[in-house]
Amino acid sequence: MACNIDQFLDQSTPNNEPLRGKYMKSFGYHSLMHRMPTVFSEITGLLKAHQLNAANKEEINKVVDKLELLLSEILNNNPLRKIDSTSTLSLMWNKILEKKFNSDSVVTWFDTEWLLTENYMYIRIKEIFEKTKLLQNHDPFQQLKYNAFDESETTMIAIAEFLILQFSKKELDNTSLKALFMKMLKISLWGNRFDLSLNIGKSKNITEDPLKAIESLDKYILADHSDEIWNTLNVSSNKNPKTIDIILDNSAYELFTDMCLADFFVTYGFAEVVVFHGKSIPWYVSDVTKPDFKHFLNSLEKECSSSALQKIGNRWNNYYTTGKFVIECEEFWTLPHCYSAMATEDSELYNKLASSQLLIFKGDLNYRKLIGDINWEPSTAFKAALCRFQPTAVVALRTLKCDCVCGLNSDYETKIDENDKDKNYLSSANYWQVNGKYAVVHLSK
Q: Quick one: 194 exposed, middle or buried, by C-beta within 10 A (0-12, 13-18, 19+)?
């Protein structure tokens, strides 16, 4: 039974305030009240489908019961509690929670900042599995990610065939090289549309021709610093080795598009090493973990029937084994901190990122943490919204899926009206901020 609706506010998040679930016209409220129950339903459905033996069945039933209790906590707006675990990540979470309990008189699912409570939900899910004997390392979202990979194979083949043709060319003039970069950047950007947590665990069967699609999608980019990013790449750097970091979002198709961009950097000498940063535990349904990363490379090379995907998989596996592609999964990414706190909360990670030429943050959660999950005025400059987070040049590639955004040009409303003229998208005032149709390409340096 859901909590009393009278305790919520029938309004959007006030300007310059953190997002909270108590605002009924915010995506935080929609997520906690409507999206999360379906995510839990997907998890329990997958668990029940994999009851392999009597012992397994009994343990799965206990996990399902605990998941249902957790969902009840959310819908009833119960107070948060500490994590019942001694893992390193849980102890880090408990320090954050203790500080929160000491500073705020009310710390509940809907009243507390959505960035904290949404992240907290996933560490609580992890806690449930840690308490079992047979499922301690189980990824409840694994099958969803594998399905998403299978369903995007046709589109990945089209990109792989294009890349193989491009890489066969010995040299490109600067104009052609820039055009290829723009194509790879936009493919990576729009790969972010396919988010299993947004689509409630249900992947989309991706069949569009991505190389044609990106040409028609520029009109949906509300802030585009692509030229400035290209210019930044072409500035000589004394950092050695030349490294670019990509802070990942979703696995499957989006990971494929991110690796395409990374391959561009390595092939044409913009980076000697590309470091991918994933999540240390299963997170936000489709976020990349180290096992996801390794399984993805293995699937491309050994399980796909397409020769183009096998070739590109072999190429990327070679990059991985020779250290040109690196995957790191620091604990910081599964904490609720805004990135402006990184310098003090994890100075080692901050200093490591500072040695990079370029940081590319993918997707919605990274974007929210970059700008503090605050409902900024959309015209607020990206650099200002970062609140002094600037270890090196920072890029954000994000399709809009929740109601916080910054760095938009003054004509963004006109652009939206032109794109959505005569279409029934006006069910809510901020529809354009949450449906994944629009995007931003930001740079701060």
A: buried
Angle, helix 174-191 to helix 210-217, in steps of 10 degrees: 90
Chunked mean pLDDT (size 10), the chain, 445 residues: 68 93 92 91 87 75 95 96 97 98 96 97 97 92 93 92 87 92 95 60 54 85 97 85 96 96 96 98 97 97 96 98 98 98 98 97 97 96 98 97 92 87 52 89 97
- Are 195 and 363 contacting, i.e. CB atoms less than 8 angstroms apart? yes
Note if the pTM is more than 0.85: yes
In the numeric block, which tokens belong to residue 418?
Answer: 């032109």
Note whether 152 and 253 are within 8 A (CB): yes
- 166: its two tokens: 């491009």
Phi, psi dihedral angles at 113 (to 5 degrees): -50, 130
Q: Give CA–CA dist 368/380, Å, rounded.
A: 14
| Sequence-separated contacts (24+) of 86-95 with Cβ below 8 Å | 87/130, 88/331, 89/123, 89/126, 89/280, 89/281, 89/331, 89/334, 89/335, 90/123, 90/127, 92/331, 92/335, 93/120, 93/123, 93/335
Amino acid at 265: F
**Three-state secondary structure string covering 162-177:** HHHHHHCCCCCCHHHH
Q: Provide CB contacts within 8 A for 9, sequence distance 6+.
A: 22, 23, 24
**Bond from prior residue into 336 cis (ω within 30 degrees of 0):** no
Q: Are 436 and 222 contacting, i.e. CB atoms less than 8 angstroms apart?
A: no
Distance CA 39, CA 145 (A): 14
pLDDT score of 58: 86
